[in-house]
Amino acid sequence: MSTRIEPTTPAPSPVPGQGRAPGLSGIAGVLAVVAGAALILLLQFIPPTDAISPLRRTISEYGLSTHKWIFDTAVVLVAGGSAVLFAAHVLRRALPPLPAVAGALWTVSLLVIVAFPKTNWAVGPSVGGVVHRIASVVGFVCLPIGILLASRRIFPHSSIWRRMAQGLAVASLLWFGLVLGAIVVFAAGGGLPWWQAIPLGLVERGMALTEILTIITLAVPLLRRE
What is the span of the domain harbouring residue 219? Predict the structure, then answer.
């Protein structure tokens, strides 16, 4: 009497995005972003040689102060954490090409901001200052647009987190809209210079906060159990 041996089913090949790697990427990305945000917040409480008003002066002013190294470290941490989170979603095949490019532009723009400090108006205009300004605009616009375009793919099973990410992205664009509106009014012959017509420092800090929170939402799908 012979015994029939049933063929065994081979183990499935690993699927990108499954296993421990996405969760570790989510944790590492969030830790880096939060650490960078904490350092930026710390700068508000460590007065440099010249006082920097959080109401009127931009965050990049710290790149011209005696605490430049803290500012640079903070921005690099946010850029690194962003890169990890976006890369993890690319590996999960949850990020279409256009949002992936937007995420890459956001990350690169942060590094450019560190490499090219903002214009020191006590000295005068500079090419590096122009590059810094362009990189700031590119980063602040690309991140929320990329999240809006990819939110359904990133959060396919969680409408709450999807709406939260979308809401934060829209809020970021609205903050930027205040700056753009002030520039348009000034260009049309408005009274005050655009950087004085609004509390520029407060607006930029609000925009930075919403964009950092937007980045953190990227970790949610990575930390969920597969």
Answer: 21-223
Orientation of helix 127-154 relative to helix 200-217, angle to 10°: 40
Residue 50 inside a domain? The answer is: yes
At 41 the three-state DSSP class reads helix
Instruction: Read off the tokens for 217.
Output: 């939402």
Output 53 or 88, whichever has higher pLDDT: 88
Q: What distance in Å separates the CA atoms of residue 102 and residue 198, rounded to the nearest whole number? A: 28
Tell me, what amino acid is at 212? I
Which residue is listed with tokens 């999240």?
147
pTM reported for the whole predicted model: 0.86
Residue 69 placed within a domain: yes
Structural domain includes residue 52: yes
Sequence-ordered list of residues with C-beta below 8 angstroms from that of 128, at least 6 positions apart, any chain: 116, 117, 119
In contact, 195 and 170? CB cutoff 8 Å: no
In a domain, 15, yes or no: no
Residues 154-168 have pLDDT tens digits of 998 888 999 999 999
The rounded distance, in Å, linking the Cα atoms of 217 and 42 is 23
Q: Count how many domains the chain has.
A: 1
Q: Which pair of tokens denotes residue 195? A: 């950087």
